[in-house]
Please model this.
Amino acid sequence: MRSNANRAEPRPLLTSDVAAPAGALSRLAADGDQQFEAFFERLETVELLPPGAPNRIRLRREQGLGVRKIENGRSRLAAADVISGPAFAACCDRVAESARSIGSAPPRIRTGTWPALRLAELEQAESRLTRAVHRRRVGFPMEITARRHRRQVQVIRGPIAAPPQFEEYFSLQVTTPWGVWGGLLPSLADEDLDPVALRLVDRLRSRGLPPHQHAPGVIVLGPNAAAVLLHEVVAHALEADTLGLSGAPDQAVGLKLGGPELDVVDDPRSAPLNCKRSSDDEGTAVISRWLLRRGRVRQPLADLAWAERCPSMVPGAARRASRHRLPGPRTTHLELLPGPIPESELFAEAVGGHYIGEFDRGNLDPLDGRCVLRAPCGRRIGASGPVDHTGPIEIRSRAVDLLAAVTAVADRPLAGGAGWCAKDGALMPVWARCPSIRLEGLRVAD
Amino acid sequence: MSARLPGLRSLRLALGAVCERSGAPGAELYVKVGNTHRIEIDPWMTPVTANPHDLQAQVSVLDERGWALRAGGANRALFLADSGPLPEPNGWRRLNRHSLRPGTLRLPSPSPDTTPGTAPSPAADAPEHPPDDEETAGLTFLHDLLRGLGERMPEARLVRGRLDSGASAAVLASTTGVTARSARRLATVELDFAASRDGRHGHCRLYRAASNIHLLSAGAIASEITERLTVATAPPPPFLPAGEVVVSPALGCNLLALLAPVLRGRDGWPRLRKLGDGHPLGPPQLQIVDDGALDGGWMSSAFDDEGVPTRAVALVRDGEPGEPLLSWEDDGWSGFAAAGCRRRSGWRALPELCHSHLYIAGGSEPAESIRSGIVHGCYLLDRAHDGRCHATFERSPTGGAGLLEEGHFEVDAIGLVIRRGTVLGEAPKVRLTGSVRQLLQGIRAIGDDLRFLPAPGAVGAPTLLLTGLQVEAVG
Model:
């Protein structure tokens, strides 16, 4: 069955003329150092819990706006949980710190209707995932919570309105007798549920196995696991605010972090299905950004504030968890470009090592660069590829050592490794497309 | 408060419209408004000047407003939450009989011995300061903190600083006749500092709260940060004495928070009783209490977020299991009475059973005499923010080895090595481990300096003298 998520976008968030608030914002700027930006947001989360749960269906909707003044690197934000002309005017007054800052009559601001609820795909998720598990000739009890997330954003900065943005994606939480699996999916179609079934079956087969005490000498990471590793040690490490903790972020440009096989790009335009972005949460057009080019740092992730502080940085990577939070530089869709090696050869030179299909947890300490990655299970690599299942594996290493250990990149990239990034407590969906990679001689930190 | 709450009459009209359109036998509406002043400082912009208003800071003024509806009965139910004002009675047109889906909804009935009404917390009774005052007070607090820290420890470097100060109010009504109002004020500060001394790096993270910003002391927090960074950047001790361990209120709060799963609900009660294994859980002076109506508490309210009256529940009384923390749905279970203990983390959330002010009641012994009475042991100041802090109460879900039903905990902490009242050296990272039974039964003294920390909710502990736990140096 095909996904029905890739459909026409809903009506724009703002149905009134965006020129009115744009004109009001441009009148606010008293001098050239000030920029004013309005952020309109609408969120919807529909949650379907397992049968028997109280309030099994839960619908959360919210909309609101935030007005921000940026002046000499300092921001002043006012936000409200309503989208209306008077709320917009009140927020403008708060950031401008004067009454009637945009005149006596607030602009006319109207919103479009909410998209249709469409519960059928959520209701079918359980049976389709169960079928996908059964196709692997196993069966076990599962409790499935399915959620659909929708987000509409409209940013107006000064006199210019960016194109409206719309994202739709799904999250699943599957509780089994041996643990909980959770993750993000671009759709609930069979082609996206099938890899979930594979991971659940892997966990079934490795249940009860003891954890590894030592990191193996050779590790092959599947596309999902490689995506999590790169998210932690490349994307987070190259966010301007993380780099700013240890010096000027632009000084990182040109640093060698890995071998020449590492080409890593952040490109929100190529995110899957309805998660593609053409502009970021500050209204700046997004770009295909080389984070690493042949292993060297090329262009860290930056937003407007960091681009103002470090002129060599390019904005366009700003994301905000909600209208109540200030934007910050974040990754959206990470890609590791494929290498020349067929996947079978990747395994052939890793016999005796371990294959890790997914990490369920990752963390980078921004101050000392130490990274912790936890895999719930793994597989020993034999002559024919991954064979026996093994228990949980935890890798603790410095970020630079992890990247230096990458010796080969396979030739077949797959979408995967999507998940929630929770940096600074702000939950944001992130996407990735990676091939498998091989790590050798990994130095493990204490 | 910039937005106003609707009156109970508006809620009742809306409930009538909801039930009429959806056919739901019961419904409940919860409306919340709030405002927050947030000041954030990042390390790029920390220069401290003479004028607090010149502090390089990001300021946010946030108005929040939303409502949540629960409707349904024994077979069909709906949960719906939305931002903005509550719809007018004719604004529920989209609801119909198909809006309810398979599921269940039960709502509490009014308590016979209480009268519904307004129940602001003591903190909310404090006079509300104009927004400009709030911002000025916040900037002054952060300015004083950074200046004070610069004087005490010039090498300390800010990694992240965030101050939130705000107020909220909520009103609730249901078709069963329950009504309640509540109001709350809270200020929280989250600080992350790092320092390097003689090539050794240390971090310190603090999260503190008060019922208003004027009760947060910049000088005291600067001293706490200095003390923690000094210990975190010290060389490790050549050896650690095994024996007495005195934990500060800050670390005591972390240890108590680890025990929370056995201190609530029907599930926790049998595990709490089993911990004693035929013996008292702890010394006779040990009292562990959860009190939703604690005088002067940040979360204090006469009703919980379902309109059920709150009260003090003695979870551990005189060292023995007291009574379980039960919600109204479990009232009368094993002969125990329920208490208002279901709270919402915001208007978007459903009410869940959780603690409000969970604390170990302070004892009679002065904390200073406990610390100075250490013959040869450790005084642990706080948890190490980049270390372990967890407890396990169940068998491993993967079926791994180890019988952990009695509970086992591990906490990495920073502290001092002390011999007969003299500090022998600093311990930048030690691991405190043991079973939960050992932790409770090993309490030898309880200080008189009860202090609360945000956990979430509020968790409180005084200085504690512990024995029988393992302490080892880490790193």
Q: What stands out?
A: The two ends of chain A are 48 Å apart (CA to CA). The mean pLDDT of chain A is 91. Chain A has nine helices and 25 strands. Chain A touches chain B through 49 residues (CB under 8 Å).
